[in-house]
Write a structure and sequence with these properties.
The structure is a homodimer of 394-residue chains. Chain A has 394 residues and is α/β, with parallel strands linked by helices. Chain A is built from twelve helices and 14 strands. Chain A has two domains: 7-36 and 287-392, Aspartate Aminotransferase, domain 1, CATH 3.90.1150.10; 43-282, Aspartate Aminotransferase, domain 2 (3-Layer(aba) Sandwich).
């Protein structure tokens, strides 16, 4: 009998993965995923970038590289964070990672001992919950409203909770809720964490994908005490298949992440990083992001209108300003996991909300993704879900 | 004051990394690295493979994929392991990883709780020591001779040591020693671990790079109790820059690794895996490996001859049958770390051996890499090291 490490007791197969497997049938309209729309990938431009890298620096691209990652790409990232997020960062303060998921794993491992507290929005990103679980922490959830985390609740928790080692937040177009923190709340948050001096992971995979309203500064741009670990990625604005993302943090933190990365994985792909760097050099990524925003913004609008048309009274949902998701809250006696099977029988899928709450409960919510479906699919799918909700009403 | 996780106390900057930084000066002949020779990378063929992937399945290559990794590549790997290593494996028993280093991290995390024992050859691969340190184990070293691990010593340790959770070995052309286990010793090892039922990591990055003698079957091919976790990689036979490697193990272990990978990193690069798969489909990798073997085999021969010519009596060294390294043992009063500075002053570099012993000591050894240097460089460099050894003799 082989014994596995105790930590593995926390690691279970994700119900969502099992659900997603069922949604692969071609007849299913799936709002369950969170994938970028593949028809928008700049395949031919990316190919030109790969060709240029291999023609110009092929032996460098195929060789081992440094743990921090391809230096010209880190410089481009620093410039882009300044232009888009008002973040002043030195390329030395950036570490490339294989997707932001790896950044979450690193953050958990560097900051959390078993039993330590990690604070998250309620609900929050399922993948972050799973990554942090590997460090066996205690999760404390902060209630949210339509403007994200409620800061008075955060302050209450920090004033009364020991061993808070990390706070994880997604201020822009949150996964799963689709909500965005207004400027005032960002300022309040930074005042609070500056007072308590707790490290913060600001996960911003969707920040560029704003469809409505003004871009807001990143928490990291207001980070006078250098407590914020900013996670950015090319997965949603270019393509996820190359697994190129980054962490940006103060030199002390980045040094720890770098040492961990050396031991855990040596480095991200040299070729992948150089291809992304060359793409940024050869093409206008902002023009490309503009195309994505137009398509996703349209699809978000179609879904929200369909929800207004077909969801019954008593159901609330987010009208997102950006990102990939909307979130619906049903009467609390409806179990969205049970309802998911009813919907799947009618060939429509969504993700039940419970998995996004680290401590469980909240069985009456659902996450809906609109980035990968056409207008007609969206309207028909939402109509079917609406009918099933109505059939479940008491 | 921010507190980091206790585990991070174990994670220190590698002295070797600092040494390698000093060896970057162009006038330095470095035997310190362990890089494949970049002039042998099949850059133009790899470019054709990338182009074909992006032309034929671009939107798939740039999208998210499954955690286990691109299925056609896992099938190709299974076929190749059967042909080259006599390993019968189902593609379902394979998980792609971002380099074998990630496989080491996964093995440590899945099997080791703090204080558990991991057994290694003495000396062993520095990167494995560093990866396992993240799980805070106790390291027990098994003495070795010119034929690798001494099996009677292993049996003694297993008979008397509690909480042995993992055994890590490199039977082919070991890093750092360059030694290979003969068939008889492989059989003995498998008998012992079959008796004690301890999971084994068989790390085989160099197995294809044999210059002399007969290929020997992998431990995994004799694994009647399914205890061996086999690590293979494309880093040394194709290129390390894409970070595509694999783990092969029984379904129970692979399921654990897969769950961990889901939480820690989601997946390896879809595009990277598809490019490697397409390369294997379009080109003859065995013909390519043949070229590498010819070049490295020649360089190994030049280095060993130079050591015979220039190293004084009292120094022993490995005449490797394959791989990238030879290993020299000096009189035990010579500190190879001190001597490394003397050599660097003469523009020659190697890696002091102490770092390859998880519990320290053994300051009189050195690892020498021959894969990246020309004949004249090798002869001159070894002559200089030989002169410095002589100057240090009592």
């Amino acid at each position: 009998m082989v014994n596995f490490a105790k930590m593995m007791d926390n690691v279970k197969a994700s119900e969502i993965r099992e659900l997603l497997a069922l949604t692969q049938r071609p007849e299913v309209t799936s709002f369950a995923g969170g994938l970028p729309a593949p028809e928008l990938f700049p395949v031919q431009d990316f190919k030109k970038a790969c060709d240029a890298v291999l023609d110009e620096q092929g032996t460098v691209a195929l060789q081992y590289g440094t743990t921090d990652g391809w230096a010209p790409l880190r410089k481009q990232i620093a410039e882009r964070m300044l232009a888009k997020n008002s973040i002043h960062a030195d390329p030395k303060d950036i570490l490339l990672t294989a997707g932001s998921q790896q950044g979450l794993d690193y953050a958990g491992r560097v900051f959390l001992d078993p039993g330590d507290v990690v604070i998250m929005e309620s609900p929050s990103y399922l993948g972050a919950i799973n990554a942090f679980k590997l460090s066996q922490p205690r999760f404390v959830e902060i209630p949210t409203d339509e403007n994200g985390m409620i800061m008075s609740e955060l302050e209450k928790v920090l004033a009364t909770t020991k061993n808070v080692k990390l706070i994880y937040v997604i201020p822009d177009f949150q996964n799963p809720s689709g909500r965005t923190w207004p400027l005032e709340r960002r300022k309040e948050f930074m005042e609070i964490i500056t007072k308590y001096e707790i490290p913060v992971v600001e996960d911003n995979p969707y920040g560029d994908l704003r469809y409505k309203g003004e871009f807001l500064p990143a928490l990291k741009s207001m980070d006078t005490k250098n407590l914020v670990i900013y996670l950015g990625t090319f997965s949603k604005i270019l393509a996820p298949g190359t697994r190129i993302a980054w962490m940006c943090a103060n030199p002390e933190y980045i040094n720890k992440f770098n040492l961990l990365a050396q031991a855990a994985v040596l480095q991200t792909s040299t070729f992948g990083a150089m291809a992304v760097s060359k793409y940024l050099e050869m093409f206008d990524i902002d023009a490309h992001v503009e195309k994505i925003r137009a398509v996703y913004g349209h699809r978000a609008g179609v879904m929200v209108q369909a929800m207004k048309d077909y969801f019954p009274e008593g159901v609330t949902f987010t009208d997102p300003d950006g990102g990939l998701f909307t979130w619906a809250v049903l009467p609390d006696y409806i179990d969205t996991k049970v309802m998911a099977s009813q919907c799947l029988a009618k060939n429509v899928a969504y993700v039940p909300g419970a998995g996004f709450f680290p401590n469980g409960g909240n069985n009456h919510c659902m996450r809906l993704n609109y980035s990968c479906a056409g207008d007609e699919q969206i309207v028909n799918g939402i109509r079917i879900i609406g009918d099933i909700i109505k059939a479940n009403l008491k």
